[in-house]
């Protein structure tokens, strides 16, 4: 079903939006599929799950929007001054840092969990095969 929705949306959005329409179609169909799977999981577990996800999703979405606007604004200025191959890596790093800062200021607990997991992953002793 998700593939069919993606194909229909892609065909409908590619003409007015170009390649951006393909990206939007994929994002919309993936979101719809995630919502559908969440509903199926709620039925299988016989308990509500969506309500507990509402507040974190709002904060994460707001942080993503802040990052998107910041990256877009930086790209608008940097792409005129620098070649894209030089501007893009800097904007990516800027986006990651802005998203992290936004999540911190908005109190997204998943950021702390992710950073702790990365810390354990990077500091874990390497296992030898001997």
In words, what does this structure look like?
The protein is mostly helical and 130 residues long. The protein is built from 5 helices and no strands. Helix 3 packs antiparallel against helix 4.
Notable traits:
extended, 5 helices, mainly alpha, 130 residues
Topology:
Blueprint: H1 2-17, H2 19-45, H3 50-81, H4 84-106, H5 109-123
Helix pairs in contact: 1-2, 3-4
In short:
With 130 residues, the chain is mainly α. It has helices spanning 2-17, 19-45, 50-81, 84-106, 109-123.
| SSE succession | HHHHH
* Distance N to C terminus: 48 Å
Percent strand: under 5%
- The dominant shape is extended
Low-confidence stretches: none
Supply the number of helical segments: 5
Global structural class: mainly alpha
Helix share of residues?
over 70%
């Amino acid at each position: 079903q998700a593939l069919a929705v993606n194909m229909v949306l892609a065909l409908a959005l590619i003409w007015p939006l170009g390649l951006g329409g393909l990206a939007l179609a994929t994002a919309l169909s993936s979101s719809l599929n995630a919502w559908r799977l969440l509903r199926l999981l709620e039925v299988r577990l016989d308990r509500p799950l969506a309500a507990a996800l509402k507040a974190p999703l709002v904060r994460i979405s707001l942080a993503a929007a802040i990052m998107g606007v910041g990256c877009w604004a930086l790209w608008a200025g940097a792409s005129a001054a620098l070649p894209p191959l030089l501007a893009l890596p800097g904007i990516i790093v800027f986006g990651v840092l802005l998203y992290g800062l936004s999540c911190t200021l908005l109190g997204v607990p998943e950021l702390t969990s992710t950073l702790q997991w990365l810390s354990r992953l990077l500091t874990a002793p390497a296992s030898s095969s001997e």
